[in-house]
Amino acid sequence: MQTMFPSSLKPLLRTIIDETMNRKPKPTVKLAQLAEHVMPRLTRVTKLSFVYAKLVSDDSEGPYDVEVSLMFPELLGIVGNRLRALHIQSPFALYLPPQLESLESFSLDACAPYHTSKIHGIMLEKIPAFLLAQRSTIRDVSLAIDNVTFDVSPILQCLQLMSCLHDISLELPYSTKAIHFKEGRNILKTHQQHLRSLDFSLTPGLSVKSSAVPPVVGQEWWSVELPNLRNLAIHMPGVLFRWNVGNYIRQFSSSLVSLTIRRHSNLLSDFFTQNKETERFCKLLCNFPCLQDLSMSLSSFNTRDISIVAITLPRLRSLFIDYSFVSLVAVSFCK
Length: 335
Description:
Distance between the termini: 91 Å
Number of domains: 1
Oligomer: single chain
Strand order of the largest sheet: 1-2-3-4-5-6-7-8-9-10
Mean pLDDT: 77
Largest sheet: 10 strands, parallel
Order of helices and strands: HHEHEEHEHEHEHEHEHEHE
Radius of gyration: 24 Å
Helix content: 25-40%
């Protein structure tokens, strides 16, 4: 007896058969029409972000959905020559073209659950060559990774060879072992005269317990002078603030416009939990004539804190305060 399937179910049935027999299905008519009729109309696109929500198996070389893996290079082929900013997750590194002529900003996320060991190997093979091909045009680079077992030194070393980076953002995992910051110092040294924005974040790696205490950051990272830095963001465990963060920030007093100081609330010895530390910190910043935007973390927040900010930093245009709880203890306003 032959079973007849409604025509609407045939594409679904074909997909199930292909996946069961480990075949890669051919591009659908919808994708072909999209590439032929829709994508060429994107004549003014200069920024592109490709984010894939599905998981990637460790034996996969890229996004599991074949249509996604085909759409990405197809889209780059159409808008690539005028593209100014590109953000991708690591699985899409496989499909990057050799060069994008006008690219100025590149952002790469290499985080779980889509970042596997095989994809990491592909990323280290593709990304350095891709960055060096655009080293005369790229000004902004952002890298985020959350696994302490994955080495990103080839990419960090590549950043030293870039011609002129204005904006560097690095989100790296820490472990209880020594953190290697040699590449970091060399990157800052290479770009110290033209670096405008620095965003440096240390986050607990996937294999690190939340209570683990990382080693103190090497002083060589922070000894590099950055005379033209306008935007600074530091996101670290509180214990790393034992080296005097105030002395480090003070060197930017004449140029800093935006400052963000964050910490991981699940670790002790936070820079902002000590008595009157908020007041001392704000008094330090009152000597920053260009400072307009401030973002900081407080374990507790009360009226005295906002009074301190209002009196010591009257020129602020933007204020963001991250706090764990509100203190209801009655306090007098500072004078």
